[in-house]
Amino acid sequence: MKGDMRTYGRLIREALPYWKIALLAMLSMAATAAMEPMLPALMAPLIDESLIDKDPNALIQIPLLIVAVFVFKGISEYVASVSSQYVANRTVADIRSEVFAVQLDLPMTDHDAEEGGRLLSRITYDVAQVGEAVSTAWMVIIKDTLMILGLLGFLIYTSWQMSLALLVAAPVVSFVVKKASVKMRRSNQDLQTWTGRLTGLIEESLLAVKDIKIFGGHDNQQERFDDINKRLRHEQMRVIKIQSLNVPLVQILAAITIGIVILIGTQMSARDLLSPGEFVAYITAMGMIFDPVRRLTGVNATIQRGLAAAESIYEIFDQTLDNQRGHSRSHEALPKASLAIRDVTYSYPNAESPALDSVSFDVRPGESVALVGPSGSGKSSLIALIAGFLDPNDGQICINDEPLTQWPLAKRRRQLSLVGQQVNLFDASVADNIRFGWPDATDEEVREAARQAHALEFIEALPDGFNTQIGPFGNRLSGGQRQRIAIARAFIKDAPILLLDEPTSALDHKSREEVLKGLENLKANRTTLIISHQPESLLSIDRTIHLIGGKLSN
Ligand code: ADP
User: In angstroms, rounded to a whole number, what is the distance separating the alpha carbons of residues 259 and 265?
Assistant: First the structure.
């Protein structure tokens, strides 16, 4: 409950920037609710003055007033609906955008640990649930509560004696309805359990159909099936009985209440304490109160679902973000950088042995070092540690002898370019993919980067040149072309340290040649670490380091 209040508080804070529109929504809801008792209130003069006394003025005035009430109510209802949904939509769009931003900032360890589907469904499903709760629920709660209060006020004002009967009966009816719905929920859960068991048995039997045939297990399985089938039928009938009983039961209770109210009303009328018009007005208002009550009781489920979803969203908001947000663009690239790995040890959670065990080496400014080792020796883990996707359990990684733990992550990433086996491009133009991360790069700079990356020739041969849209994930380009765009991207970024993670391993011989030329250009004057599982390097290198089983070997 306390958690619920906190979640409510946070949701309300999200909506705070739109308080003016929210206020307008609430005022117009109040106006709509205030119009509600007007209709029954007009019934009294309609009957007493127009129909019984045949007052000529009332004959004209009352129909006009009825129209006026509906026009006013229509306008306020329209404003209430549009403005409240506006606030809800803006709030949900803000939350959605925040979730997206936070997802991208989550540490890589969280991305690896969470199922991809969960991250997606948080944006699509959870946010939608919150949306439904905040858009319909708050309108229903405020408007219908006000409506009920207005109508109740009118009922008590018209006849407190009749209202007394109503106030005694209402809790009885709501008790019965509540009991029935609890029973129903439980039966529905049972029904789901038995349906699940039936499906399970069918699945199991179909998978094992050969065994059943060979071993003659037909009768056995059939018996189990019929057993569950029978239980399912019983549960279904139970739900049907409760469901069918609920409506007449409530109706009978309502009829008894109405009967008592009418009885009191007619007694009062006989003693001239109530006019026929007032009597009709009373019954009308009483009938009008049921709808908002029903809506109000139904909205709870939506709110509960929304709160649960909001909690799951806030859960990731509260996780420590990727060493504070901030983008590499806000930092300067160093003109020269050395890279030092000092006694770095890293174990994956739950792993038996460390992926990297006391690894130390240096790469001097401008030097090209190949890091060679068989698959599983820890090469990718090392790259992840240097890039700050993972944090070492022990040891230090330094750039220019400064330990990176003392730097903001964004500053570290400004010094690094990464070209991996898989290049991820976006569904945008070639030029925008090259200036990805550097949107203010000029067309000239983009062109120059493409030239250096040996990509100019093929880009110019594309139908729209640099403006060609490359499709989702860049799927209109070949692997080698994608790789060269990634290299051009690194030229634009112009970081002093280059991490190459087997960038040519997925390419055929011909496209490899072009990519290698681009890479040679890129690594000139940069501090470069080239990862490879094959000892002979295709690129020019100064030194080779061997990694086996997470340890350096000579
Ligand atoms: P390489 O890049 O040289 O093939 P990795 O750095 O990918 O080697 O892997 C080093 C070791 O760490 C391997 O034993 C691998 O099984 C393990 N490993 C890699 N990634 C994970 C992970 N996300 N969770 C647990 N263990 C991992």
Answer: 10
**Which tokens sit at 330?**
């806000």
First to last CA, the chain: 62
Q: Whose CA is nearest to atom 19 of ligand 1?
A: 381
**Over residues 458-468, mean pLDDT:** 91
**pLDDT tens digits, residue range 187-220?**
878 888 888 888 888 888 888 888 888 888 888 8
Provide the pLDDT for residue 2.
Answer: 61
554 has pLDDT over 70: no
Residue nearest to atom 5 of ligand 1 (CA): 378
Task: Give residue 348 CA to ligand 1 midpoint distance, Å.
Answer: 8
Q: The whole model's pTM is what?
A: 0.71
Atom of ligand 1 nearest to the CA of 373: 3
Strand partners, 527: 497
- Which atom of ligand 1 lies closest to the CA of 353? 14
Where does the pLDDT of residue 305 fall: very low under 50, low under 70, confident under 90, or very high at 90 and above?
confident
pLDDT above 70: percentage of residues in the chain: 96
**What are the residue boundaries of the structural domains of the chain, listed by start?**
2-317, 328-553
Name which residue sits closest to atom 26 of ligand 1, judged by CA: 348
In the reported structure, the alpha carbon of residue 382 is separated from the centroid of ligand 1 by a whole-number distance in angstroms of: 10
Nearest CA to ligand 1 atom 6: 378
pLDDT confidence of residue 326:
58
Ligand 1 pocket list (CB less than 6 A): 112, 348, 351, 355, 373, 375-381
**Minimum CA distance residue for ligand 1 atom 10:** 378
Q: What is the mean pLDDT of the chain?
A: 87
CATH number of the domain located at residue range(s) 328-553 in this protein: 3.40.50.300
Token duo for residue 544: 């080779």
* pLDDT score recorded for residue 108: 77
Looking at 435-495, list the stretches that DSSP marks H as alpha helix, in order from N- to C-terminal side. Answer: 443-452, 456-461, 479-493
What is the whole-number distance in angstroms between the Cα of residue 472 and the centre of ligand 1?
A: 29
Q: Which 3 state secondary structure label does DSSP give 160? A: helix
Rounded mean pLDDT, 497-526: 86
- Quick one: how far is CA 284 from the chain centroid? 44
Ligand 1 centroid to Cα of residue 379, in Å, is 8
- Looking from the CA of residue 550, the nearest atom of ligand 1 is 10
C-beta separation of 282 from 158 below 8 A: yes
Ligand 1 closest atom vs CA 547: 3
The helix-helix angle for 218-270 and 160-207 (nearest 10°) equals: 170
For ligand 1, atom 7, name the residue with the nearest CA. Answer: 380
Q: Strands 339-346 and 394-399, how do they pair?
A: antiparallel
Q: Which residues contact 421 (CB under 8 A, 6 or more apart)?
A: 501, 502, 503, 505, 506
Q: Which of these CATH numbers, 1.10.10.10, 3.90.1150.150, 1.20.1560.10, 1.10.287.990, describes 2-317?
A: 1.20.1560.10
Looking at ligand 1, which residue's alpha carbon is closest to its atom 22? 348
d(CA 381, ligand 1 centre) in Å:
6
Band (117; pLDDT cuts 50, 70, 90): low
